[in-house]
Amino acid sequence: MDAPPVTEHDPEQPRRYGRRLFLATVLGGVSSLYWGKAAWDHVTGVVSPVASAVAPGILPSGGWRIYTISGHMPVFDPATWRLKIGGLVEQPLSLSYDELRALPRVHQVSTFHCVTGWTVDNVHWGGVRLKDVLDHARPQASGHALRFVSMEVPYVDYLTMPQASQHDVMLAYEMDGKPLPQEHGAPVRLIIPEMYGYKNVKWLEGIDVVPRAGNGYWENLGYDRDAWVGRSNGYGT
Amino acid sequence: MKAGYVKRFSPVERLLHWVNAAGFLFLLVTGLILYLPRLSMLVSRRQLIQSIHFWGGVGWLCALAVVVLLGGRRLLATARELDSFDGDDLRWLRGRKVPQGRFNAGQKINAILTAAFAILFGVSGLLLWFGEQDTRYRFASTVILHDGLMYISLFLLVGHLYLTLIHPATRHSLRGMTLGTVRGEWATRHHAKWNSE
Questions:
Q1: Inter-chain residue contact A116 with B37, CB threshold 8 Å
Q2: Whether the Cβ atoms of residue B135 and residue A31 lie closer than 8 Å to each other
Q3: How many domains does chain A have?
Q4: What does residue A111 show for φ and ψ, rounded to 5 degrees?
Q5: Confidence of residue A134 (pLDDT cuts 50, 70, 90)
Q6: Does residue A2 sit within a domain?
């Protein structure tokens, strides 16, 4: 037989590119668990302002996702809502929305980190310093932690006094220049930028001074009590 | 050239396609409720939707696995067709009008990506589910991978729907995926290397 030898690079010979594409896609996807966030942050820096302009409030513009734990999102009624500060305090308080807004007002720009990996940069918050509210209630010396109670039952979470005393911890009733929207915790939510979002209790209606910190809603499901961004919940450790 | 209608997709190929399509659409809808702020607010029962979405995803992958096992050798032959790219396929991808087989090169790539994405959706979905309970399964990029797959799949789906429902030259192909057959002259025009004998 004098059949001509098959050349190695015969372009007409069918080649098994399909399996290579399949494997490359699967491997690329799995490896993106390690590089995806960095790449995505790079892309959203460009895309997100456009998305907010084109479809405000429809696309998850700015990167917000709305997490709830119960069947119904709490509804804020200014007539009945009160922020109650109690527990180990000299002077229990029950503040109406207007009374809360009458306290010294502060603004800050901080970045919001969710433990599931998404981040929203440069959120403009308006509200009051937690410390200013607590000073009115005068916590007793035996109170070493705070319990934050949400209208979304049974959501609670805790901060120790040193955590709650950080300079940028606040009770925010405004977000990006407008009253805090319902899905972000209207009328007021806790903001502690150094910790993941699940510590930033939404739909706040109570703050109790307690002897020590306990497990909040997500901590009962295995999340860290000290939810430092980048240094907890399996990250950076 | 065959006259009348020719058989393009076997029953098991169509079953695989429609099981995948139904599962994908169900997961797209339940997923978007979890993802889009407006829909999340409208529905609000996040825990319930999350469970439905997760178990829907598990059911989708199991159903696909059952069809693949059912298809056995017949689907293996289909996979070989999708795997193989000849010189004409590469020329087709560069925009040249060259004869194509039962699948053109674009359809091959779409099918391969769809299969790879099913696996990646499954992996990232399981990691999201178990990551909520155990930090060992938690990666900062899982949610990015899951969302990114959704965006690319949605883009592919829109193109797919345009070609199969709207574009006049190609929409006849829908008949192949529903009834299994296509017109012989159409097959010769679009898939000459398959329907030429």
A1: no
A2: no
A3: 2
A4: -95, 140
A5: very high
A6: no
